[in-house]
Amino acid sequence: MNVPFLDLNAQHAPLRQEFHAAIEGVIDRCVFAGGPVVEEFEEEFAVFCRCRHAIGVGSGTEALWLSLLALGIGPGDEVITVPNSFMATAEAITYCGARPVFVDVDEHTYTMDPKALAKAVTSNTKAVIPVHLFGQMADMKPIQAVANEFGLKIIEDACQAHGAEYTGQRAGSIGDTGCFSFYPGKNLGAFGEAGAVVTNNSELYDKIRILRDHGQDRRYYHSQVGWNCRMDGIQAAVLRIKLPNLETGNQLRRAHAAHYNQALCDIREITIPTTAFYAEHVFHIYAIRVRERDRIMRHLASRGIGCAVHYPVTIHLQEAYRSLGYAAGAFHVAERCAAEFISLPMYPELKPEQVEQVTEVLREAVTCSI
Ligand SMILES: *Cc1c(COP(=O)(O)O)cnc(C)c1O
User: Fold this and answer.
1) Is the CB of 195 under 6 A from ligand 1?
2) Which of 10, 250, 295, 332 has the CB geometry, 3.0–4.6 Å to 349, for a possible disulfide?
3) How confident is the model at residue 129 (pLDDT cuts 50, 70, 90)?
4) Which residues does 8 contact at the CB level (< 8 Å), separation at least 6?
5) Residue 187 pLDDT more than 60?
6) 3-state DSSP call for residue 265?
7) Any idea which architecture 8-244 has in CATH?
């Protein structure tokens, strides 16, 4: 039995008629770029995040970039984040003219180590971007304490954490803004590129809404220089159909994770993911750690099991950021994770027998050493 890493067709099949009707609705109403369907989605997504406002944008990367711009971050400023994230987290910092500064992560949650954050603050630090990696939120309370002490803004990178919680508070609702991606493979995915910023701050809401639409408040009256970061009407229509299933999808992901954990916890060679006491995890990614990754991944592939690595190279060691001057060994936990992570198949539609198949093949892979 083959087990694909991701199976979007399984998610879309039962909703096909609804998608067709919703997309036809956008065609009939001719509301393609921003507009009323995007506004409808924004209201619903804000409710889901338990936030006052949501702003639909073109991608998660734009959500991060516009958040930084709206908070006045620019040249000469430093923004602290983690090296074990998708490149976009750091790119957004670079694209507003500021400098990304990295700190290591906690070895159990793989999210920002608040003690490392406190040590990295300088007089130029303006903001911090904790990344809620794999669907588990960073430890926000001590991060907030550091941010308060030094007057830093907090931008949550919640691109992998739709519906995740920190002691009952939803991802995105704690920082100055929360940034979401609706890239097709995320827990809530569009039929192309899309993203959103959520915030409880009405001033930031107004600023980001204007920035994403060429800095115009009224059509053709531009109060500032912005950019085109609007969400497509068709993407909003698709997301409105998928949003009501997100909660159930996250529950199923947690159930699959529990199944994986129970089947893998006795294998000495495998480190299973840890759910922090504060967290409601939404398992965007189910990642294990192993020493002999290449051999084990080859074995999984040869038996038809789809897997991936998130991410093989930490951001501070990417060629693109050589000019920042970080060396190998700068962040021990993040670098070790990059060498040891394997992401296993994880999506709501995964069947229990598929989870079992993956765990059996894994057990076989670690015990045989061919
Ligand atoms: C997906 C992702 C992004 C970028 O989102 P896009 O919609 O692809 O621009 C940023 N940060 C993290 C952690 C992500 O997983």
Assistant:
1) yes
2) 10
3) very high
4) 184, 185, 189, 347
5) yes
6) coil
7) 3-Layer(aba) Sandwich (3.40)
- What pLDDT does residue 279 have? 98
> Which of 91, 136, 160, 180 best tests ligand 1's pocket when mutated (most atoms within 8 Å of CB)?
160
Q: Give CA–CA dist 189/179, Å, rounded.
A: 14
Residue 37: its pLDDT value, please?
98
Distance 234 CA to ligand 1 centre (A): 20
**Exposure string over 323-352, b if 16+ CB within 10 A, otherwise e:** ebebeeebbebbbebbebbbbbbbbbbbee
Q: Where are the domains of the chain?
A: 8-244, 246-367
Range 246-367: architecture per CATH: Alpha-Beta Complex (3.90)
pLDDT tens digits, one per residue of 55-87: 999 999 999 999 999 999 999 999 999 999 999
Task: Please tell me if the domain spanning 8-244 has the same topology as the one spanning 246-367.
Answer: no
| Ligand 1 lined by 235 (C-beta under 6 Å) | no
Taking alpha carbons only, the member of 112, 114, 106, 71 closest to residue 92 is 71
Question: Is any ligand 1 atom within 6 A of the Cβ of residue 131?
Answer: yes
**Cα(266) to centroid of ligand 1, in Å?**
33
Name the residue type at position 132.
Answer: H
Task: Report pTM.
Answer: 0.98
CB burial of 162-185 (b: ≥16 within 10 Å; e: otherwise) equals bbbbbeebbbbbbbbbbbbbbbbe
